[in-house]
Specification:
249 residues, alpha/beta, Rossmann fold, 5 strands
C-alpha cells in the first residue's frame, strides 16, 4: 500500500465519526477506486475503519446475485458510479443538499460507493425483496433503507424528491408493463431538474447469448424482454411480467 494511502487511512481512523455522519468529508480526497478496494476488506491495521465501514457479503453471494465478485465486480461498479457523476455533481452533495435514491439496491454494492460522496441521510435505498435489505443491514450499511412494492405506485422513502435516481440491472429484467409502472412512479419522485440513470442490455447482448431471434425483436422494437424462471413466479407481480432485482444486486 502506498505511503500516501497509509497516511490518509491513519488520519481517517481517528477522524471518522461513529455514526458515519462525516464519511463523505473524511474520504472526499480519497480516489473512488481506492476507496472501493478498501471496502473489499479493510485491513486489520485500522480497526475503527474495519468496524465502522460497510463490510462485503461473501464471494458466493456476490456471484449468485451479480455473476461476479471482488475486484472484477468493483470495476463494473465504479464505472457506473463514474457515469452517474458525469450527470450529477455528487461530490457537492453536502453543499448543495443533493438527494440520491438507489432503486433496487440489492445488497448495497453501489450504496457503499455512493457513500463516499453522499451524506448518510441524503442517500437512500429501496428494494422489493426483504433479503436485500437484511443483507444491507448485516453488512453495516446505515443509509435509510426500505422494502418497496414489486410494482410500486409509491415509494417508502424519507425524501419525496430526488436529484438522482439510479437503477443498476433492474430495468434489464422488467417487462414493458412493469417498466411503465416503475418509470411513472420514479418520475413522481424526481425533481424537475433531476436525473434518472438506468442500465439496460444492448442489442449485442442477445447475439452473445446466442439468441438471434431476440436480437431481431430488439432491433425492431428498440428493446426486448425475456422472462426468467424464479422462485417468485407465483406472485401477482410475476404474473404481470416483473422480475425483482433480488438475483442481480
Amino acid at each position: 500500500m502506498k505511503a500516501y494511502t497509509t497516511q490518509f487511512l491513519d488520519n481517517a481512523e481517528n477522524a471518522l465519526a461513529e455514526d458515519l455522519s462525516n464519511l463523505d468529508e473524511v474520504f472526499a480526497r480519497f480516489p473512488l477506486e481506492t476507496y472501493g478496494e478498501l471496502l473489499l476488506e479493510v485491513p486489520e491495521k485500522w480497526p475503527r475503519l474495519r468496524r465502522l465501514l460497510p463490510s462485503m457479503p461473501d464471494a458466493q453471494i456476490q456471484i449468485n446475485w451479480t455473476g461476479n465478485h471482488g475486484k472484477a465486480l468493483l470495476a463494473q461498479s465504479t464505472a457506473f458510479v463514474r457515469t452517474a457523476l458525469s450527470y450529477v455533481p455528487l461530490w457537492r452533495a453536502r453543499e448543495l443538499g443533493l438527494r440520491t435514491l438507489d432503486f433496487g439496491c440489492g445488497w448495497g454494492r453501489l450504496l457503499r460507493l455512493m457513500g463516499k460522496y453522499c451524506p448518510l441521510g441524503q442517500l437512500e435505498g429501496v428494494d422489493p425483496w426483504d433479503k436485500s435489505i437484511e443483507l444491507c443491514r448485516a453488512c453495516n450499511i446505515r443509509n435509510p433503507l426500505a422494502i418497496s412494492d414489486y410494482l410500486p405506485e409509491a415509494l417508502p422513502t424519507q425524501s419525496s424528491q430526488f436529484d438522482l435516481i439510479y437503477a443498476f440491472s433492474v430495468f434489464t429484467h422488467l417487462s414493458p408493463y412493469a417498466t411503465g409502472v416503475c418509470l411513472k412512479t420514479l418520475r413522481a419522485y424526481l425533481k424537475p431538474s433531476g436525473v434518472l440513470v438506468v442500465t439496460v442490455r444492448p442489442v449485442e447482448y442477445w447475439h452473445a447469448a446466442s439468441k438471434p431471434e431476440i436480437a431481431d425483436v430488439h432491433a425492431h422494437d428498440g428493446h426486448a424482454y425475456v422472462p426468467r424462471v424464479s422462485p417468485f413466479t407465483e406472485t401477482a407481480a410475476w404474473n404481470r411480467g416483473f422480475w425483482s432485482n433480488a438475483a442481480c444486486g
